[in-house]
Structures are given as C-alpha cells and as structure tokens.
Amino acid sequence: MKKGIQLLIMCFILLSITACSYPTMSEAIPYQVNQIIHTEKMNDISIVLYDTITELEEFTDKTKPVLGVAFLKGDSKDGWDNVGPNGWKNKGNDQITIYKEDFRDYDKEGNITSDLSIMYGEIVSPEINKIETLAVGETDKYNEAIMIEKNKKRYYLAIGKKTSIKALSANGDTIYQEDWVLED
Fold first, then answer.
1. Model confidence at 19: pLDDT above 90
2. What is the model's pLDDT at position 176?
3. Is residue 48 classed as helix, strand or coil in its secondary structure?
4. Cα 70 to Cα 24: distance, rounded to the nearest angstrom
C-alpha cells in the first residue's frame, strides 16, 4: 500500500513536470491553429506566425482566418513552451495588414534575456512585390522584410522596432506607406 502511494506521488510529479510542455508548436498556442505559416528562430525563441479561424462578430456564424504570432521555447524533442503574448491586434487596409508585437523574456534574476519587436502581416494587393521597413534611429535606409508564400497567400515579417513601412510594386513605386512615432 505504501509503495503504491509513493508510486502514485511520483507519477503525479512526473506528469506535472512534463505537462508544462507541448509536443507540437500548434498545441503550445492557446488558439485553434489552422496552419503554421512560418517560424523564425531568434536565439532560444521561435517566432511562430500562424492563422486561426475566428468569428467575425459575436453571435454570428461567419468565420475568417486571422493571422497571429506566438513566441515559443523548446524543440520537437523536448516539447514546446509558450512564453509570450498571443493575439492579433492589427491595422488593416485594402493593401496590407499590419500587426506589431513586442516580446521580452527574463531569467530567474529578472534580467532581460530576449527583447524582440516584430511587425508582420498579410499582403492583400497583388500589385505589391516587396515590403520594406525603417528601423528606429534610421532616417532613410529601409530594409526588406522577410517574404513568405503559403497556400496562395503572401505574408511578411520584419524583426526589430520600426517607424515606417512601405509596400512597393515590382518597379519600385510606393503603393502604400505608413509612418509613426514610437512612444517610450
């Protein structure tokens, strides 16, 4: 009887330790993942772009895929832990959607181990060939964002704090531009 209780306690401890990690990236994300679109590894953090199906308005049966981002630690061998914010606040127009997310991770002493800012979105207009962003502190040196194609849709991802975004045509004309001032 005593051995049975000890075995039960050990099983409970083992389950509670392993229950923090998930076997797949999709399971580590707190929303129903429709598809993982792209992953980008930054140090020990995996930035995961995904889409999920959400209701357009409360009390309707209409749904729409929504782009989201998750920040995960781990790997497929040891499991995945969700360590960041999850959501999809965005600004959209008929050209592109713009999502911005900041992530900070700390060690046990409270020191920052990761400080990431990302901008991502879907490219809606077929006339857009390239997305460029302007980093904080720069005045005119735009950098090209990572372009992603998946299931006949196009997305972009830019890492770092940004103050401007431009959507460009194949010949370099600006189709859409937005500038903003970052608040401290």
1. no
2. 96
3. strand
4. 13
Instruction: Quickly list DSSP for 64-111.
Output: EEEEEEEEEEEETTTEEEE-S--B--EEE-SSBEEEEEEEEEE-TTS-
Tell me 11's DSSP state.
H
Residues 177 and 167: their CA atoms lie apart, in Å, by: 6
**Kind of pairing between the strands at 153-159 and 112-123:** antiparallel
Average pLDDT, the chain: 85
Whole-number Å distance between alpha carbons of 15 and 75: 19
Indicate the pTM of the whole model: 0.81
pLDDT tens by residue, 114-140: 899 999 999 999 999 999 999 999 988
CA 43 to chain centroid: 15
Decide: helix, strand or coil at residue 183: coil
Number of residues written out for the chain? 184
Q: What confidence tens digit (pLDDT) does each residue in 135-182 have?
A: 999 988 999 999 999 999 999 999 999 999 999 999 999 999 999 887
d(CA 123, CA 131): 9
- Contact between residue 151 and residue 109 where contact means Cβ atoms under 8 Å apart: no
* Token pair belonging to 50: 């995904």
Residue with tokens 């994300």: 29
In one letter, which amino acid is 6?
Answer: Q
Task: List the beta bridge partners of residue 60.
Answer: none
